[in-house]
Amino acid sequence: xxxxxxxxxxxxxxxxxxxxxxxxxxxxxxxxxxxxxxxxxxxxxxxxxxxxxxxxxxxxxxxxxxxxxxxxxxxxxxxxxxxxxxxxxxxxxxxxxxxxxxxxxxxxxxxxxxxxxxxxxxxxxxxxxxxxxxxxxxxxxxxxxxxxxxxxxxxxxxxxxxxxxxxxxxxxxxxxxxxxxxxxxxxxxxxxxxxxxxxxxxxxxxxxxxxxxxxxxxxxxxxxxxxxxxxxxxxxxxxxxxxxxxxxxxxxxxxxxxxxxxxxxxxxxxxxxxxxxxxxxxxxxxxxxxxxxxxxxxxxxxxxxxxxxxxxxxxxxxxxxxxxxxxxxxxxxxxxxxxxxxxxxxxxxxxxxxxxxxxxxxxxxxxxxxxxxxxxxxxxxxxxxxxxxxxxxxxxxxxxxxxxxxxxxxxxxxxxxxxxxxxxxxxxxxxxxxxxxxxxxxxxxxxxxxxxxxxxxxxxxxxxxxxxxxxxxxxxxxxxxxxxxxxxxxxxxxxxxxxxxx
Length: 502
Ligand code: C2O
Ligand code: CU
Ligand code: CU
Fold this sequence. Notes:
By secondary structure, the chain is mainly beta. Helices cover 10% and strands 40% of the residues. The protein is built from seven helices and 32 strands. The chain has helices at residues 3-16, 36-40, 156-161, 173-176, 208-213, 466-470, 494-501; strands at 44-45, 56-67, 70-77, 83-89, 93-100, 109-111, 132-138, 144-149, 166-171, 186-194, 219-222, 225-226, 228-234, 236-243, 250-254, 260-265, 268-276, 278-281, 286-292, 301-306, 322-332, 356-363, 373-375, 387-390, 394-401, 407-411, 414-421, 424-425, 437-440, 445-452, 457-463, 474-480. The strands form six sheets. A seven-stranded mixed sheet has the order 12-11-10-14-19-16-17, with no helix packed on it. It starts with a helix and ends with a helix. The protein binds CU-O-CU linkage and copper (II) ion (2 copies). One copper (II) ion is lined by residues 109, 111, 410, 412. The site of one copper (II) ion has 4 residues, from strand 6.
């Protein structure tokens, strides 16, 4: 199909679906064109990341199989792409030595984990080529889907794109008592897009659109598998979904629009199961999902897909989609029922907030060579402390997207709950529960109630579109000893920002 016909068809489908081009509402679905060739093709068996054991993680470059026809040079943490899955229980300790065998500085950030500042993999706290660093901390938080990836200032995008990222799954007694699907019925699934060139390299030469929109790919990989397929049983599966892409937001659904059952978000389980037709997953976000394959007869297949949304034309824009994973039902599986009640979790009370702050995310026009993405008009400066908060404090943060593109906003050293989007309360299960990353759609204001960790020191606040982050859409914030009314040492005039937002 040539480009103009494809564009016409995409537009035609959008028009016939009767949806405005800027409708970005969860639950709205648009058909993804079926590619009959792909349905008939065998696909590649879904890779499952290795399980991490031991106490050493080496960062290195090596040739690995991503496409069956030729090897790809990937950068790995722990020798594989995706990196091995770390699995620990609340209360247990992680103790690993990172050895940097790359030609450039790197480090490891434990995304979503509340750890001491010196263990957090801060952008300025890097490990030189040929040296190492010991990361050691105790897991002090609830069960959830966390992950780890490098975070060196200015090169996070390249290092993650080249393959450095893995799951960090935390378990606890409360969750284990639910008896959710486990073993071969529990699948960690990291979704990443890559731009495929004829040499199948994970090339990372940024174009001007890449610098503006982030590095969007033309191929979706599931656990590093292109055209991934999975031989399943007719039973309930638990999928731990992570969007590990540099920039792309996915509109996750099943190809036949059957229900997806959301049981958890970034930092743990929800109070009860909620069924949806689709949800948006932004870079850095996770969803704990049950997929019920029991109603499918053996011999059938169903696909987990990214539905197109907004005015997507092709892969060069946000809103493009495609197949993520084809599930072939190959045999009968154990009969199970969906758990309706999950775990009661603490709901943060916004009335306990000691302060409200406002942040504005902008794309500067006309564009400077670097630093076109800003927070409160500032470009990241590793030597500058942008704000301070009190250890263990609760605050309300108003996040205002002053641009047209989505920004997945992420906080280190804290977890939050979403209060509202454009003043409207939250009804999308994907936005419920404890979170550390939230999609801020174009021109939207999102209010979150944040609780900071009790670990003092320097932490980061940034856009998890990794090209935006590397371009400077990031801030240093410091957690100070708990002492109510700690004065800010920020160079930002908060009162002015708040005025602008009202
Ligand atoms: Cu997943 Cu500061 O990052
Ligand atoms: Cu993080
Ligand atoms: Cu951004």
